[in-house]
Design brief:
By secondary structure, the chain is an alpha+beta fold. It has 18 helices and 10 strands. Bound molecules: (R)-mevalonate. (R)-mevalonate (MEV) binds next to α11 and α15.
Length: 425
Amino acid sequence: MKKSSLVSGFYKLSPKERLHLVKEFANLSDEECDLLQNTGSLPLSIANRMIENVVGAFPIPLGVAVNFLVNDVDYLVPMAIEEPSVVAAASYAAKIVRDGGGFRTSSTPPIMIGQIQAVGIKDPETARQRVLEAKEAILKKANEQDPVLVAAGGGAKDLDAKVIHTTEGPMLITELYVDCRDAMGANAVNTMAEAIAPIIEDLTEGRVCLRIISNLATKRLARAWCFIPKESIGGQEVVDGIVNATAFAAADPYRAATHNKGAMNGIIAVILATGNDHRAIEAGAHAYAALKGRYTSLSTWEKTEKGDLKGSIELPMAVGLIGGAVRTHPIAKIAVKILGVKTANEFAEVLAAVGLAQNLAALRALAHEGIQRGHMSLHARNIAVAAGAPEKLVDSVAEIMVKERKIRMDRAKEIINEIGRTTDK
Ligand code: MEV
């Protein structure tokens, strides 16, 4: 019989009842169902409150990158990620950067942008002037929505308005600038944007449509930079290779996407570990990389007069330490404690340093020995596990595959059998 995915009231069921339904649909075994609902450190009751239609939890490894020195403060950096080598690479790069005194960072105040779209306006330029003239009243209304944020020194601080020309005619976009302090800010900004919409409608005599935060957080930037003596990174050739790699990324969006992905490997792993919104960070980073009209590299690496290396990165960093999963996910709370950051700005700056470290590690490997060597052994271990190697054989199976340069499931299975036969004798 053809199965239907049309299920009414699925959300009203308990996780167990939902899983029962999914089990029937997807022919899951009892063992698979047990795995799904054996949620370990994220109790099903908490998961069930975090999102809708919960049937289980999805664990991914949590590692800790070591060696990070940022503005003379030592940090252990929790990273949640499925990709081998990322945590090791970050730790390795952070160690090298220590030779040059560690990372230095800065950041802007934690200002997020809320957008209010008004359409059907007869005279958009005049409407724009009217919105700008009513700034104080609009900010007052916005701030009434969040007295707690205002008491903490945050709140709506300023606004601007712009006329854009679209396929549906001109529109007036009002942008509210909200200091979100230690919150990521989506809730605060969206509430404020919705609250001021009627004022915007009155002023513009138009119709307000969207009222939502922008993930291109150009007013909430984090920067990190570092200096590395050439001896620490493997000599002049490696420095030149890294500088060349940057020039490649700066000039070619196909390379820039991968270059930036390397930096985001580290940033997103920390974002995930701390329960922050990684989609917002990804969207902001890549949009920022294209802000000048052409997608390019988020970081730069240059050679100093003496032939040493210096690098920097700048990107939007809309992160919070309060609200959302940061406060509800038990592991995210521990991850924040491990990281030890006290403000969203400090957090954003450490994240920029992590991105720069991750980018450096990737470029160093690419410019030096190629990325595969470092990846090989971890990859081989993963293949060995997937091929069914018992724990005590994983390292030996991986080692043989790396030596033979045949890191494949079929070979892993053969080796497991061969070793099994010799140990049976
Ligand atoms: C792999 O996850 C990331 C890299 O491709 C980054 C880069 O090429 O710079 C190694």
